[in-house]
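Form 7-S
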Amino acid sequence: MPSAVLVAELEPETREYLGRQLHDDGFDVLRAARRGEALDLAEQARPDLVLLEELELCLRLRQGEPGRSWDRNVPVILLSPSADAVDRVRALDRGADDALGRPFTYEELLARIRAVLRRSSAANGDVLTAGELVVDRRTRRVTVREAVVSLSAKEFDLLARLASEPSRVFTKEELLREVWGFRALGRTRTLESHASRLRRKLNLSSADQYVVNVWGVGYRLLD
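Output:
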C-alpha cells in the first residue's frame, strides 16, 4: 500500500511540481493550498507524512485542537524559506521531524522523505498484536482469531491507541485528548459510548476480555 503524502504548499507551481514528482515515485499525494485545508486533510485522510512551509501549521498539527482528531505524531518535513541553519533548528524545536532549506533538489527531498518514513515505521510499528487481536494501522484492518471486525473511524483510532500498550491503563483525559483532540474532560460521554461499542465488537465470545474499564481511571485493552 503506497504511503500518502500531504503537500501543504502555498505556491501553486511548487505544489503541483512536488505532487507530480511524488506521484511518479509511487506515493499517494494530497494537496493543500491553505492551512485550514491542510488540517482538514490531515484529519480526514490520515497521511503518512506532511510536507509544509509554515511553522504555525506544524505547531497546530502537534498541539491538536478541541474536537479535531488528526494524528499529532504524523511525520512532518518543513520546507524552510531559506537554507539558514537558525530556521531549520527552529523548525526542529517546534516539532518538525526534518527541515530542508530552499532552494532544494527533489532528489534530496525524496531521500529525506523516505528516511523519515523508515524511522516512523520502525518507531511506531504498523501491525499491533494483543492476544488473538491484530490491528494493522496501515490498512486499518482489525481481526480477532482471524475474523475481520468492522469498526468506525473513531473506534479504530481508540483501539489503535489502546493496542499500542495493551496492558497499560490509559486515563480518560489521555484518550479524549489523543483520540478526539479534547483539551478538557468536560461532561462528554463520547469515550464511554465508543468504548462500549468497541468492546461488544471485539469480544466475540465469553472468553474474550478486550477494552477493560478500570473504574475511576480509564481503560486498558487487556484484562
